[in-house]
Specification:
The protein has one domain: NAD(P)-binding Rossmann-like Domain (Rossmann fold, 3-Layer(aba) Sandwich). About 0% of the residues have low confidence. With about 250 residues, it is of the alpha/beta class. The protein starts with a strand and ends with a helix.
Length: about 250
């Protein structure tokens, strides 16, 4: 059994890789720093292949697929990504383009290529790591929220197509709230609400995937998810505006 995990050098990605390894999966782990990967996965069981690639560059997504397309990957975990916070007119455009390339384009390309192979053999799982942000707009983190909305809706649309095909291939989307990772440092935000540990978030994500859940939510986010479905958009925008503006300061 083999699993490919992107963004696997820290946080949820690393903990999902560890968890899958404990379940008997050989790992293919990807990040921009091979030395960090090699050090992190020294104690793992079975085969661990570390791959250094910057997936915000489109050509590297194709390189990754070409390298692994004959390895019979069982699980693809799209996890690589980052955020940024601030007023949209003041945030750095080049950073936002890199975010869009990594948070959207890399997910889209890898999902497309591996899913095509999975459907041909009628087996495989894809876990796309999104966020509660994917269910609503987010003032002061507008680009990040928009990228996660893309991933949520892409995953849901694909899931329905697979269902119509009677395919045994499964796709899930993991939508946590704040998680204690390096994300907050990169995004320049600080949340006052309680955060999950990355270890707990990873376990929830992987367990949910194996039980064929389409949308995987931590318990502390289920009420939030419900509120996004029943609350007026003006209220959601006002609340998110206050929360994100405060967090970004």
């Amino acid at each position: 059994m083999k699993a490919l995990i992107t963004g696997a050098s820290s946080g949820i990605g690393a903990d999902m890789a560890y968890y899958l390894n404990s379940l008997g999966y050989d790992l293919y782990v990807v990040s921009r720093n091979k030395k960090t990967l090699d050090k992190m996965y020294q104690g793992c069981y079975g085969k661990v292949t570390t791959i250094e690639l910057d997936l915000s560059k489109e050509e590297n997504c194709y390189k990754l697929y070409d390298r692994l397309k004959d390895e019979h990957i069982d699980i693809l975990v799209n996890n690589a990504g980052f955020g940024d916070a601030g007023n949209f007119t003041e945030t750095v455009l080049t950073k936002e383009i890199d975010m869009i390339n990594l948070n959207i384009k890399a997910y889209h390309i890898l999902t497309k290529l591996f899913l095509t192979d999975f459907t041909k053999r009628n087996y495989g799982r894809i876990l796309n790591v999104a966020s509660m942000a994917g269910f609503m707009p987010g003032p002061y983190m507008a680009t990040y929220y928009a990228t996660k909305s893309y991933i949520v809706n892409l995953s849901l649309g694909i899931a329905e197509e697979l269902k119509d095909m009677n395919s045994k291939v499964k796709i899930s989307v993991f939508c946590p709230g704040p998680v204690k990772t390096n994300f907050v440092n990169v995004a320049h935000v600080h949340f006052n609400i309680g955060s999950l540990t990355s270890t707990k978030a990873a376990q929830i994500a992987i367990d949910g995937m194996f039980t064929d859940k389409l949308i995987i939510l931590p318990n502390n986010m289920k009420i939030n998810y419900f509120l996004t479905k029943v609350s007026p958009m003006k209220m959601i925008l006002k609340i998110n505006s206050m929360v994100q503006e405060r967090a970004s300061k």
